[in-house]
Amino acid sequence: MFAADLQGGRRGLLAAGVAALLVTAGCAQLSGGVRPQGTDIWSGRMSLRIDSQPVQTFSALFELRGSPEAGELSLTSPIGSTLAQLHWSPGEALLKNGSEVRRYESVDALIEAATGAAIPVGALFGWLAGRDDRVPGWRPDLAQVANGRLQATRENPGPTADLRIVFERS
């Protein structure tokens, strides 16, 4: 269920798995103990729609912590099953799915390989914090961030993608 395996229906299955992973993170407890000072944690629900042929949609619970340089994203299903855990640091991104671990050069490469949409994780931290961090091809709508809602649309390159997040910050 990884990007390298995406052929035909497997891509949709992977996207659903990643989405579920994002959803699961909202309920999952990440190990690590004490949170470093200045590290924010966002949790909630995430959905992604990719206007490909066929259209791909998925949603998941998520927990995002750290920074664009080093962090963790956990995804869970609505019933609390861990779908995936992503961990990244400079030059490496890991996708843990049960006992299987896949390595990627960056978290952006991991997300793109898994979903078909290059979700800009670095900018996502800024958007969640209410900053209009610019990414070519993406248009964030930050009007509801104070209310815990974020929408961002990827217009280029195609296919278009619509990312919606309902979140809490701790």
Automatic annotation (TrEMBL):
Keyword field contains Cell inner membrane: no
GO biological process, one term: protein transport
Keywords carried by this UniProt record: Cell outer membrane, Chaperone, Lipoprotein, Membrane, Palmitate, Protein transport, Signal, Transport
Principal localisation: membrane
GO cellular component labels: cell outer membrane
UniProt membrane topology term: Lipid-anchor
Membrane-spanning segments: none
Cell location: Cell outer membrane
Family as reported in the entry's similarity comment: Belongs to the LolB family.
Name recorded for this polypeptide: Outer-membrane lipoprotein LolB
Protein source organism: Variovorax paradoxus
